[in-house]
From TrEMBL:
Transmembrane segments: 12-29, 51-69, 81-103, 115-132, 139-156, 195-215, 227-246, 252-276, 288-312, 332-357
Organism superkingdom: Bacteria
Record InterPro entries: HGSNAT_cat
GO MF term set: acyltransferase activity
Entry annotated with the keyword Membrane: yes
Residue ranges constituting the Heparan-alpha-glucosaminide N-acetyltransferase catalytic domain according to the UniProt record: 7-156
Name listed for the protein in its UniProt record: Putative acyltransferase
The keyword Transmembrane helix is assigned to this record: yes
UniProt keyword list: Acyltransferase, Membrane, Transferase, Transmembrane, Transmembrane helix
Length: 365
């Protein structure tokens, strides 16, 4: 496969494989039987699944740096970008709302948050920050946000509880959601994509912008790899030690969670950049490239196709239940049977993604 010189090929691959992983963990063959790495941590801790959302936001940040540097470099005025940024954010948010309404379109029990909603907000804030601040200012804003969030969550007693708490549903972020977040919440009384936790999630996007800025410098390719992976390692280590006092937690999107996951994302991007963009090792990368070319479209397709592959009932059971039951009776562990079905569903989603890519159709919001 010939590498397109005008693009950061490694970023396209990372986006595509992250999307494929998101489908695997979002659509298990059996909710009751899932390998531990393929499910979210119950509270504190970090599993493979917990990495997917922050990796995607990191990728959003890198993409902002690359795309808007190019546009500004061609003479496009900043004023000409504002409307497009806002419209794109609103489109992503609207698609998130559409998916939340599936399949019944019940407006009386509507959730106003979700993965796409958070992506829309992070994109909007980070894109505007990129247009108006230097990378040093972005680093300061990100660091200050993480410190203020840490102080707020660990020093301000939860109203009504009378003490500082970081337990599920009993923390400052949950209290803010219960007071000010409209509509249905994912966990009943609190939401993992709630109001306060959105602030540190924006910092995840900022870390991606900083990585993107590094990739645009005049350093050699090997130097970029070294600096990116060194920064990633330092970030992950710093996040680990911060996590001893402010636990790594995706639901709260803690400051330590931001540093650990952004560090791991930088390490992975650096490794893929070295292998693919520098050494040209592209064998087995087509799946990632195809999924990455229409990532948001694939995300939407997965939710729509799930209505059939997980919602359509035949003789009282859904297709995934029939599949897992059949292979479990044949001797497979139920976790393995469930994983096979989720991989099958990834393959189903790959078909329209491949068709779009083959016909050079790239749906951009």
């Amino acid at each position: 496969m010939k590498l397109p010189s005008e693009r950061l090929f490694s970023l396209d691959l990372l986006r595509g494989f992250t999307m494929a992983a998101m489908i695997v963990v979002n659509f298990p063959g059996s909710d009751a039987h899932v390998y531990h790495p393929l499910s979210h941590s119950r509270w504190n801790g970090l599993s493979f699944t917990d990495l997917i959302a922050p990796f995607f936001l990191f990728i959003v940040g890198v993409s902002i740096a690359l795309a808007y540097t190019k546009r500004l470099g061609t003479g496009t005025p900043k004023s000409g970008l504002y409307g497009k940024i806002v419209v794109r954010a609103l489109k992503i948010f609207a698609i998130g709302m559409f998916l939340n309404l599936l399949p019944d379109f019940d407006f009386t029990d509507l959730r106003w948050t979700g993965t796409l909603h958070r992506i829309a907000i992070v994109f909007l804030v980070c894109a505007l920050l990129f247009l108006h601040t230097s990378w040093k200012a972005q680093a300061w804003i990100g660091g200050l946000t993480l410190v203020l969030y840490w102080l707020a969550m660990t020093q301000i007693p939860t109203p009504g509880l009378g003490r500082v708490a970081l337990e599920p549903g009993q923390n400052l972020a949950a209290w803010v959601d219960s007071k000010y977040l409209p509509g249905k919440m994912w966990q009943g009384t609190w939401d993992p994509e709630g109001i306060l936790s959105t602030f540190p999630s924006i910092v995840t996007g900022i870390t991606g912008m900083l990585a993107g800025r590094l990739m645009l410098t005049g350093f050699t390719r090997n130097e970029k790899t070294n600096y990116l992976m060194t920064a990633g390692l330092l970030s992950a280590v710093a996040g680990y030690f911060w996590g001893l006092h402010f636990p790594v937690n995706e639901n709260l999107w803690t400051s330590s969670f931001v540093l650990v996951t952004s560090g791991l994302a930088a390490l992975l991007l650096g490794a893929v950049y070295f292998l693919v963009d520098i050494q040209g090792r592209t064998k087995g990368t087509s799946v990632g490239l195809i999924f990455g070319a229409n990532a948001i479209t694939v995300y939407v397709l997965a939710d729509v196709l799930a209505l059939i592959f997980y919602g359509w009932r035949v003789q009282g059971s859904s297709l995934n239940e029939h599949f897992v039951s059949t292979f479990t009776q044949a001797g497979l562990a139920p976790e393995l049977a469930g994983l096979l079905y989720s991989l099958l569903f990834v393959g189903v989603n790959f078909i329209p993604a491949w068709w779009l890519y083959r016909n050079k159709i790239f749906i951009k919001l």
